[in-house]
Known about the structure:
This protein is α+β, with helices and mostly antiparallel strands and 119 residues long. The chain has one domain: Aspartate Aminotransferase, domain 1. The protein is built from four helices and six strands; from the N terminus they run αββββαββαα. Strands 1-2-3-4-6-5 form a six-stranded antiparallel β-sheet, covered by helices on one side.
Amino acid sequence: MTPGELRAFCLSFNAAVEDFPFDTQTSVFKVLGKMFALTNLGARPLTVNLKCDPEDAVRLRADHEGLIVPGWHMNKRHWNTVTADGPLPDRLLRELVEDSYDLVVAGLPRAERLRLDRP
């Protein structure tokens, strides 16, 4: 996946925005103020931090050794760092980004989740 494709995919989710709270290079993708993806789109290799169910995180790290590792500067139990421009299938990467978004949305207050469902 290219940096442009990753950015476009992250922004394709309902109410997703890109923010730069840390520096001008680090893109933070948020839904209603909560982060679901963090990346430096100019870095090589291209990696992205994604929220993940703790049990899935361990399994993914074992299944994709070196491509999916504990989240860099994140809670290692709930976040993975995924190499986006390597041999990992784009389909899997898209699923991981979507799962991250869904996990964050699930943690939002009910009123905010309902607001996301409105057209």
